[in-house]
């Protein structure tokens, strides 16, 4: 991975991997529902697989799961969990979502959950969506999620930025500092509006089956958008 953005992402997620894993246990219901509706003979790719909280239940249900992540440390955490669960149908690949080393039309379904928004630059996010579509078999489905720009925590800040004449970064870009376990590591996020999310999915030539606005941590406004798409 020679891309400077890939190298920075790798460094960031390696540095917080163990701390991150300790805070992410329960899979999201909307993802479990998607997984459970897949045929049991499905081959699934989990792009930005993180600590495997969705990969492990997927591996228990489907024929094979391919975990793809930029972080060695996160992949090692998944490997250990797969061994503890005696799962022999898990393959792990170190790669950036903008350049996935899988063949065209090679997987039946894809999980791309809480990862797209960590990719710097819109053209790279769209490239990752194009890669997602490329590796899907015809009529294959994917679940893709991003953080909402207008969630409780960031809503007022982005309203202020709307009025600011200074817009040097892509609107929606933020840096969030991971402070768990005494760490102090900035992470990149691009927070989406629903319209922007739809536009990027269409730019990658996905057919959109449905998009849901979901509250996971926010009390008032949705903090995540989930899209079910197909090739």
State the end-to-end CA separation: 27 Å
**Residue share in helix:** 25-40%
Domain count, please report it: 1
Give the rounded overall mean pLDDT.
93
CATH architecture tag:
3-Layer(aba) Sandwich
Q: What is the helix tally?
A: 7
In words, what does this structure look like?
- It is a single chain.
- The longest helix has 20 residues.
- The two termini are 27 Å apart.
- The chain has a single domain, classed as 3-Layer(aba) Sandwich (Rossmann fold).
- It is built from 7 helices and 9 strands, in the order H-H-E-H-E-H-E-E-H-E-H-E-E-H-E-E.
- Helix 5 links the parallel strand 4 and strand 5.
- It has a 7-stranded mixed sheet with strand order 3-2-1-4-5-9-8, with helices on both faces.
- The protein is α/β, with parallel strands linked by helices and 231 residues long.
- Helix 1 runs parallel beside helix 4.
Descriptive keywords:
Rossmann fold, 9 strands, globular, 231 residues, seven-stranded mixed beta sheet, 35% helix, 7 helices, alpha/beta
Outline the secondary-structure elements:
Layout lengths: L3 H20 L5 H8 L6 E5 L7 H7 L2 E6 L2 H13 L5 E5 L12 E6 L9 H14 E12 L7 H9 L9 E6 L6 E6 L3 H10 L3 E8 L9 E7 L1
Parallel strand pairs: 1-2, 1-4, 2-3, 4-5
Antiparallel strand pairs: 5-9, 6-7, 8-9
Helix pairs in contact: 1-4
């Amino acid at each position: 991975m020679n891309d400077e953005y890939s190298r920075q992402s790798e460094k960031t997620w390696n540095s917080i991997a163990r701390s991150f894993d300790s805070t992410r246990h329960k899979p999201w219901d909307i993802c479990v529902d998607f997984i459970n509706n897949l045929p049991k003979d499905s081959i699934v790719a989990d792009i930005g697989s993180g600590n495997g909280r969705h990969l492990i239940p997927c591996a228990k249900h489907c024929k094979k799961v391919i975990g793809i992540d930029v972080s060695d440390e996160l992949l090692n955490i998944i490997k250990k969990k797969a061994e503890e669960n005696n799962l022999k149908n898990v393959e792990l690949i170190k790669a950036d979502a903008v350049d996935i080393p899988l063949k065209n039309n090679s997987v039946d379904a894809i999980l791309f959950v809480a990862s797209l928004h960590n990719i710097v630059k819109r053209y790279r996010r769209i490239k990752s969506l194009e890669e997602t579509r490329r590796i899907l078999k015809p009529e294959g489905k994917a679940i893709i999620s991003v953080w909402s720009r207008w969630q409780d925590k960031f809503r007022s800040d982005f309203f202020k930025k709307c009025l600011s004449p200074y817009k040097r970064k892509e609107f929606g870009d933020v840096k969030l500092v991971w402070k768990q376990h005494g760490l102090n590591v900035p992470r990149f996020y691009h927070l989406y509006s629903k319209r922007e999310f739809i536009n990027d999915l269409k730019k990658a030539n996905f057919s959109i089956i449905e998009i849901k606005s979901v509250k996971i941590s926010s009390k008032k406004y949705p903090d995540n958008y989930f899209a079910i798409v197909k090739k």
